[in-house]
């Protein structure tokens, strides 16, 4: 029998009524002939409440104890989920991460999965039980409870799907799937039927929140078909899978805008080997997440070194840059704290010309000045004035026809 | 180094401020030179809230899932307790029942402890850490989480004290210790300095709520010195220990009254072997808890068979009695649902005469009629009219001088 993994997020299981709604989806899959493994997150805002409880006692709690505390949220959900299924007449059994030997390293609060013992799960599936596993958590070799950090439950689900060779991993959330762009800004955004792992990775790193980057990367590495769906309806969602030939015809799959960005430029840095490394080592030590890096030569001896960061990291990054400035021979540090980053993503870029031209043209037509440009193999990002962020996203979406399903767009 | 086990109940750890207060008691013990193991219950009303969450989804939830759910309450407390100690500058590590291999049978919601692996705890104690263990919970041989039922955290604490050969097991609660009687009824009740396991077992079975009967029995069997104390102050509490010679001088240690009792009498039962067994087997099957049994012969062929039960069990017991009536040749079933049971307990009764006489005398003087009398080796109980319950308790307390410390009482 084929195995289906279904993951339900915190909003989807926030109360009894919603748990029952999710349980009905599980039962439907059972009736469709699947052996079902459910992965569930903590209910609603429970994790936040536990974090608040912890901070009341300790501003900087030991991470091991934090994991011991937070893992209870998912444990409660899975027990309640099993009870709901029992009440509906279905045999179900819940497990913590430890009980299914979700073995991780010991990096508490951001542990990485090393292995899963799928045997215990298979045994219960073969007894016609629905198996419910607590997401977000595992155990290290000494049976200390660990948690996987942000997006951890998605990662648990995809990892279980890989270990169990599941046919698909359904990720239930509160939206219908992955959209071409943020529908709150561009109302005509459409849901994608499918998207490649690489595109989803780019979109996730650009802040498109539907799925966490680690789970997508896991899915790519272990070849897990991921289906992002809405727990509130029965609509087909978006399938994240390997690139298929027809995807190449789609030049741009999605567009994003990140509004709260800043750009720091170190002007006139000595252009000698190792200077960039020194700067970014210092920033890494200060735990600043760097988005894009741009270096431009001013003369054979001097260069400008810029990088984009999120506004909450600005003060820390600024301090680090000022501290290392003299060591790099830098003349001055220039800050722009009013930047937004608009990006387009698509695997089709690999084989199509004219994408950059179309993007810059759309921005120009909308009278939006481009501060700087960065690209990857399947992405183009432009830094622009924050005040023009939404206008820019809309212009780009219209240019790339992101209001139409992929197959209906013109093939430039 | 001597080991001290300190157990804190749900009220004592209900919020951050109270957890810190408990943590200070732990630190004091560390400063006094002890290696300390803390056992903690779920915070405040959390267990009740989780039970309500479960019932919302399933009126009769599977017990395995109930344990999976409820065990999270204690797990949260121990993690928070460890964080509090860290914030105060002390190394601490928390464990679930499973992590310290608190092995139980598989009787979910009322599991019995089979063994404890004390090695992991000792290892951390020897690294100068304070060890915090979740009470109330264990795991069975298949790593299913189990809970120990009512009074489970007390039992966990006493079991850990036994396994670790602790010097003492402190049970912190919201009262100063064990009182000679209920101070809400007899205001002059005094706290006992010490009490024997057997007396405490009798008092616990008579509804004196301070400690659960299972924990006391465990303490008796494994020779654990138990110290019942108040988490809100530093007063010495009551030590529960083996009988010491001076205890014999105390004729009556404590008195209790159980107000919501009923008495069922089967009138004129055929006095043949096996009839009583049949009746009580039927009652056990109906899960009725029997308090006292009184049989009196009416004639060589007929007897009256009475038993005391708590009011909540009355309907079930009545139905069972009516159903089996004819089979026992019983003429009629007589119910008294207005009974209270006043009892005195003391190991001194074994060696002293006149206790019964003094009790009956005190009741007579207060013009209280005695419906029936039952005794054990260290207890005398009288069933009386419920309306006279408090008056009866007071009369008995005055007669046995339960307003004075044991050593000041006259040795009748």
Please characterize this protein's 3D structure:
- Two copies of one chain form a homodimer.
- Chain A has 412 residues and is α/β, with parallel strands linked by helices.
- Chain A folds into two domains: 172 residues, Acetylglutamate kinase-like (Carbamate kinase, 3-Layer(aba) Sandwich); 155 residues, VC0802-like, CATH 3.30.2130.
- In chain A, 33% of the residues lie in helices and 27% in strands.
- Chain A is built from eleven helices and 18 strands.
- In chain A, strand 1, helix 1 and strand 2 form a beta-alpha-beta unit.
- In chain A, helix 1 packs across helix 3 and helix 10 packs across helix 11.
- The interface between A and B is large, with 37 and 37 residues.
Mean of residue pLDDT of chain A? 93
Task: Give the uncertain stretches of chain A in residue-range form.
Answer: none
Please bin the fraction of helical residues of chain A.
25-40%
CATH superfamily of the largest domain in chain A, by name, is Acetylglutamate kinase-like
Question: What is the count of DSSP helices of chain A, taking H or I runs of 4+ residues?
Answer: 11
Query: Which band does the percent of strand residues of chain A land in?
Result: 25-35%
Query: How many domains comprise the coordinates of chain A?
Result: 2
The strand order across the widest sheet of chain A is 3-6-2-1-9-11-12-10
Can you tell me the CATH architecture of the largest domain in chain A? 3-Layer(aba) Sandwich
Structural class of chain A: alpha/beta
For this structure, the quaternary state is homodimer
For the termini of chain A, the CA-CA separation is 44 Å
Overall, the morphology of chain A is: globular
Cα radius of gyration of chain A in angstroms? 23 Å
Main sheet record of chain A: 8 strands, mixed
Biggest interface and which pair forms it?
A-B, 37 and 37 residues
Question: So what's the CATH class of the largest domain in chain A?
Answer: Alpha Beta
């Amino acid at each position: 029998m084929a195995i289906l993994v279904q993951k339900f997020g915190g909003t989807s299981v926030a109360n009894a009524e919603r748990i029952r709604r999710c349980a009905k989806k599980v039962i439907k899959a059972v009736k469709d002939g699947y052996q079902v493994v459910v992965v569930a997150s903590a209910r609603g805002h429970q994790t936040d409440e536990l974090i608040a409880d912890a901070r009341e006692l300790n501003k900087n709690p030991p991470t091991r104890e934090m994991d011991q505390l937070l893992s209870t949220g998912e444990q409660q959900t899975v027990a309640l989920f099993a009870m709901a299924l029992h009440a509906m007449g279905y045999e179900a059994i819940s497990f913590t991460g430890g009980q299914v030997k979700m073995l991780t390293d010991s990096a508490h609060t951001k542990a990485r999965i090393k292995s899963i013992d799928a045997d215990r799960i298979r045994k219960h599936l073969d007894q016609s039980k629905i198996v419910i596993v607590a997401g977000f958590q595992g155990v290290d070799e000494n049976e200390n409870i660990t948690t996987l950090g942000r997006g951890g439950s998605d990662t648990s689900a995809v990892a279980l799907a890989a270990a169990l060779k599941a046919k698909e991993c359904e990720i239930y959330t509160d939206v219908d799937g992955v959209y071409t762009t943020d529908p709150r800004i561009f109302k005509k955004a459409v849901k994608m039927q499918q998207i490649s792992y690489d595109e989803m990775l780019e979109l996730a790193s650009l802040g498109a929140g539907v799925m966490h980057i680690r789970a997508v990367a896991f899915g790519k590495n272990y070849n897990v078909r991921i289906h992002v769906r809405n727990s509130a309806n029965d609509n087909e969602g978006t399938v994240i899978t390997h690139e298929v030939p027809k995807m190449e015809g789609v030049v741009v799959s999605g567009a994003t805008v990140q509004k709260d960005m800043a750009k720091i430029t170190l002007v006139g840095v000595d252009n000698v080997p190792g200077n960039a490394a020194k700067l970014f080592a210092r920033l890494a030590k200060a735990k600043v997440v760097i988005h894009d890096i741009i270096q431009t030569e001013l003369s054979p001896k001097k260069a400008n070194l810029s990088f984009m960061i999120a506004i909450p990291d600005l003060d820390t990054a600024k301090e680090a840059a000022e501290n290392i400035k003299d060591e790099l021979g830098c003349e001055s540090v220039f800050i722009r704290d009013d930047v937004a980053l608009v990006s387009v993503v698509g695997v089709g870029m690999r084989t199509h010309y004219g994408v950059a031209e179309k993007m810059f043209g759309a921005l120009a037509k909308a009278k939006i000045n481009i501060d700087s440009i960065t690209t990857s193999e399947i992405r183009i990002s432009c830094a622009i004035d924050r005040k023009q962020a939404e206008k820019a996203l809309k212009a780009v979406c219209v240019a790339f026809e992101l209001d139409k399903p992929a197959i209906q767009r013109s093939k430039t």
